[in-house]
Amino acid sequence: MATQLGFPPLPQSAGQSRSGRTLAPWALATAVLTGQAMASLDGAIVTVAGPAIQHDLRLSDAMLQLAIYSYLLIFAVALVTGARLGGKYGFGRLFGYGTAVFTLSSLACGLAVNPVMLVAARTTQGLGAALLVPQVLSLLQVTFDGERRRRAMSLYGLVLAVGVAAGQVLGGILVSANVFGTGWRPIFLVNVPVGLGVLAFAAGRLPAAGLPTAGLPAAGLPAGQRAGQARLDLAGAAWLAVAILGLVVPLTFGADAGWPAWSWAVAAAGVAALAVFAHHERSLAATGREPLIDPALLAQPGTRRGLAGIFTLHASYGGLVFTTAVYLQQAQHYSPLRSGLTFAVYAAGFAAASVTWTKVPSAWQPRLPAAAFAAFATVTGLLAWLTSGSGWPWQATALLVIAGAAHGTGFDTIVHRTAAEVPGPLTAAFSGMLATINQLSTVTGIAIAGTIYLSAADSRVLAPMTAVLVTITAALAVTGVGVHLPGRHR
Question: Both ends of the chain: CA-CA distance in Å?
């Protein structure tokens, strides 16, 4: 559930590989979209397999959360850096490196014998995805133009939209099949032959060039920046990673440990690291260098409101998908396949709304973000009521379709509106920030919802699932008021 990052066309010469044996256009599209599909599937496929992984490796609830979101966390903080590396050293080269790292780390995940090995491998997977994913759109832009580019972009959007639903279903099938008694492990091992196939097919045959010296805005790079002069903000990426870890790790492990003193100390360190990150980014921007996140973007009130809305939508999704998978499989004793099929309808609603909201009369479109938040909040409120008993009625599954549609409508309309208000020189920086927010919000949602679910298990006030849903409802309702504030909408 990500947005497409816009790139202007490159000169045709930029598409030549070092060997001169560049893949035919649609063969190239097949290779890079297969790589994108692996990364898109991975976040969803692991969620539905979470309870099986937890049982087999004897993970605590907190370690299960960490195993799921460690991939998303590293993916988020390294994504913009991966885009810049592609612009600097070549899209095809970085795609190959990313695919190799992702494939090898998938093998390590599938062979993991303890929680530490699994989390380390998942973290490396996230790094591979951060190198791989930004190059996909760039390579499609390098290769296609005109009507063929429109068709290629449609396929790219389809891969993103279908990835979550397919991940839920495929994860359920693989875990339920228990292939040769391997349980959950095929959800990772299936990436190995696919990744090796992509590498064997495309190695040395993808465009080697990065950004031309005329200046192509990559995600997070301003127009006019020469590729060879672009400096990577590795310090900024490191400070952001430390800050996010400092904030989400106490949320993940603190409740289970009874909120000891170390959890508050780590959270305070996370806040301090976030302040250092903000100061570092301002300093880079003031001296004309390239920050990971341009502070000028956050100076725009419309941008702040838009990003807050996107963050809340994705965090609500992350928390909902994680806790629903745990609730259905542990409390309702659903099989992984039935659980995956149940939540797959959410992704179907998201995909349908993403391609139909533009058909709403233009006079109504400015009201869509607020309407989407209201619909999403209403659905989660109804789900809280429906799950307050001891079951999961069919009406709950039907409501997930509406929740997905509300998420898709809200996300796409807010991105469209916010991007229209971003000044031209900051457009590429907005793309990079948006890609980062998309992943970090899901991490945050998993951490917060998981903590609430775990804490409520020891409380007699609300059932765990109900407590999570009430919290999501409140967050959506409050944020929905903010996205409806007047602004210069187009």
Answer: 23
